[in-house]
Amino acid sequence: MLNHHRYIAVEGPIGVGKTTLVKKLADTFGTSLMLEKVDQNPFITQFYKNPAQYALSTQLSFLLQRAEQVQNFRQIDLFQNAHIADFLIDKDPLFAKLTLNADELKLYQQIYKNLMIDAPRPDLVIYLQAPVEVLQSRIATRDRSYEKLMSADYLSQLSDAYTQFFHQYDAKTLLTVNTQSSDLIHNDADYNALIDEIDQVQSGRHYFNQSSFAY
Question: Which CATH superfamily is domain 7-12+21-208 in?
């Protein structure tokens, strides 16, 4: 049971293992889940086929979906039930800056600003890291046909953007986790060490780097 973290968000680039870890954490702590609905975005496949044409529609679809989830979340009494999410709404502009042209980005930013008024902030953000080659390997094992269209260059840019974003992130408690050196899904010792770390962190920036084999 979570005591001082009533709202946790797990973040990181595509393929790093956010959703798998979130589901495991929710089961361990007995919390509710708030999951990103990537497969429900009607433009995602077209985006990977033709990024320039479908970037704005894809980005706005994700933004509206995430904003609705987060705004609904405001109605929840966190003192009664803790929640864990596999996305952080604050990072949404990160994708927009990578994919949109100047005019599209300006429109996106106006919509984002209006939608995010009074959006709740997580008590703890867990940022999962892994090298691009590890991300590529994990993506290759997933059954998502549209992800096979993703270029290595885009994934590398995205990974760098995440690194820069969390280097400057100071809104709440941040726990950075090296998932290349920690098997949080299959290694009980690594996973239990992470649980202990989550229980202990109170504020500021923290780092978790176990030394087992990567999964």
Answer: P-loop containing nucleotide triphosphate hydrolases (3.40.50.300)
